[in-house]
Write the C-alpha cells for this entry.
Amino acid sequence: MSIQVRNLSYVYNAGMPDEQKALDNVSFEVYNGQIASIIGHTGSGKSTLVQHLNGLLKPSEGTIIVGGTDITEAGVAMREIRQKVGLVFQYPEYQLFEETVAADVAFGPKNLGLDEMEINDRVREALSLVGLDVDEVGERSPFDLSGGQKRRVAIAGIIAMRPQVLILDEPTAGLDPGAHREIIDMIRKVHEKEENIVIFVSHNMDDVAALSDKVLVMDRGQLMMSGTPQEIFHQRERLANAGLDIPSAAKLMMQLRKSGCEVPVDALTREDAAKELAAYLQGKSRKC
C-alpha cells in the first residue's frame, strides 16, 4: 500500500468573489509501515489535504493514487477506497451516536456486511487496541465515559474497519495530559499491530518527533518541506518563518548549549535528551 499525491491543488468557492486557494501544487508519497506527520500553522491546508486522501474532497487539479488506484478518476468506487483509508476527524467523540460502546464500534463492520461473529471479534480487537475492555465498557453508553475514553471509542470504530491507511486529524486536541499520553501510546500500539500507514496531523512537535518516520510541513497551502524528523527540525529558521516551533527536548539542549554546556543538540525526544545528558554528566571533560 502507498499513497502518492501529485501536483494537488484545491480552490474553495472556485469562481466566486471569495474563492481561496487552499492547496497549491502539493506532491508527496507515503509508503506502507510509515507514520507520516503533517504539521503547519492554522490555515496552512493540513485538514484540507487529508480530506482529499479518502475522497471527501475532489482536487481542483492533480492526482491521488491510493494502492495503485487513481481516486481522482471518474467512476472510482469511493466506498472501497474509504474502507482502505480511515479518517478520524478532530473531536471524533462528537460523532458517537449508538446506545452502547459495542454498538458504536460495530457500526462500520456491519456496513461491510460481515457476519455477527466477525463483527464481535473486530469490536473486541479494536477496543483492546485502544486500551479498552469490551467486557467492561461494551454495554455502557459512550456518553458516560471520560473525554479520553470517548475519543478512543470513536477511533476504535475506524480501526474495526481495518483500514490500510489510518488518518488522524489532531487526535489529542483538547485532552488533558494523561489522556494525551494514552492516545499517543495507542497510535503507536495500533501501528505496530496493523503495520499500516498512519498519517498524523498535529500541532504538538514533541509527538511528531516521537512518532514520525516522515514529516510534511505545510505553509499557506504549499508543501514547504518534507523529510525525517531530524532533517525537518534542524531547519529551525525555516520552521520559525512558518510559525512553527521545535520539540521541547531540542529547545532544552539548545538552551543548555547557549548557557555554556557543551551538550549535543541533536536530541529531539525527551528520551534521547535524557540519554545525552546522562552521558554528558558522566563525562570527565564536561563543561557547563
